[in-house]
Amino acid sequence: MKTTSREDKPTQPTSASNSPQFYHGTKANLKPDDFIQPGFNSNYGQQKQASYVYLTATLDAATWGAELALGEGPGRIYLVEPTGPMEDDPNLTDKKFPGNPTKSYRTQHPLRVAGEVTDWQGHSPEQLRAMKEHLERLKQLGIEAIED
């Protein structure tokens, strides 16, 4: 996996002895040392003002975020560093699935952009279409994201 960091050097995958690497998928065009913060309109659902920002320790979950985010331009995946406490994302954990298989989290504190993953592989057109159809069915049923 090729990544760029604030020093524009490739970032090595994190070893088990280090803290986990976190990702954030979006269509926003950001640069190192920018902050992703709550308070902006969500990229999903009714696009309400978001009380949380979301991050994940898996590239696959970040890829979905980049592919499904609203907006123009290409999806992007950023390496991010949380600046405060975080909790499991209830949309993808115990309230919907046992445990936290996607290693997805949320925080009310900003995420600092440390770099960008530049060579990620998107899902197949069929997978992407199926996911968008699934999300549209949920919307029609009135099922929104959990926002405590």
From TrEMBL:
From the UniProt entry, list the residue stretches annotated as the region Disordered. 1-42, 81-108
Q: Name one Pfam family in it.
A: Arr-ms
Database matches in Gene3D superfamilies: Rifampin ADP-ribosyltransferase domain
Q: Which residues cross the membrane?
A: none
* Composition-biased stretches (Basic and acidic residues): 1-10
Checking InterPro entries in the record gives: Arr_sf, Rifampin_Arr
Question: Any idea where the Rifampin ADP-ribosyltransferase domain is?
Answer: 22-120
Residue ranges with Polar residues bias? 11-21
Which NCBIfam families does the record match to this protein? rifampin_ARR
Q: What is the recorded name of this protein? A: NAD(+)--rifampin ADP-ribosyltransferase
Q: Which organism is it from?
A: Hymenobacter negativus
